[in-house]
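Data availability (excerpt). The following record was deposited with the supplementary files.
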Amino acid sequence: MSKSLRELAVYLGGRVIGDESALVHGLAGLDDAGEGQISFLANPKYASKVATTHATAVILPPGSDGHGKNIIEVANPYLAFAKLLTLFHVHPPQFQGVMEGAYVGKDVTMGSDVTIYPGTWVADGVRIGNRVTLYPGVALHAGVELGDDVTLHANVSIRERCRIGNRVTIHDGTVIGSDGFGYAPDGAGYYKIPQVGIVVVEDDVEIGANTAVDRAALEVTLIGRGTKIDNLVQIAHNCIIGENSMIISQVGISGSTKIGKRVTLAGQVGVAGHLQIGDNVMVGAKSGVPGNLPANAIYSGMPAIPHKEWLRAMGVVAKLPDLRKTVIALEKKVEELETKLGTRDSAPV
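Predicted structure:
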């Protein structure tokens, strides 16, 4: 597929500076792009590469130096590039129905244009929306509900009665609705607390591979609309994740914690249980969150503190070896002065 720069500018809501009739058939980074490809600049750090790229055109923000290249000017080049990747490379699936080797139980309600691959298991009473694709090894337990335009990749498991919204994608090996980690002390052992709630995943959520979202002990574990969750994330029972949040790889969120809207938890953040994190919070990688975090702020560290305070503290950490030498030298001088004055080890008056 080839598109003219004029067509792409209309699609992106931008404007062409240069040859509007130039044709593009693919995309690449500034270093690798060649004739017939379009690239983009989102980080000013790499602006010099615009001059040396062999791309037919470059997507740039307003006011950038195009170095004589064909330009599509847009407000958000990174978003524009993502949209072009979708245009050139993401194609609607070819629906194939229920394929031989798939198991579908009794009283299953199924919409139109559904594909169920061999090795999939659909239990009794499941409800499946329109344009749903279930890849091999998917397991839908009794009473599960899937909305429209859902894609479940290989070996995804959706446990009993959990609900998945519209336009949700869940990647390989993820489990939605496994039992929450709940045990009551019973003498020398522990008594398992039945986890009888569910998980609700709202519309436009994407969940990466090998992630676990536990069902609530009672009521609901909720993943809010538009939230994106990376690979290898653990979300415990009764958590509430607000809309349009970003949960990055290896984050662990303990039970009954409430995460606000538009929150970003960077890689390997650990969050204790029964906490509240406000809207628009960002938490830096490897941070530990032992207490509530107020809204509209950035936090880092172990334990997490306001990011600017953490930066100052880290500036001191780098100097600790020199500070230790200084303290040792000062202690020696004080000792020498006390010896000269005859006050060392003397009793206070």
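Summary of structural features: The chain has three domains: 3-89, 156-308, 319-349.
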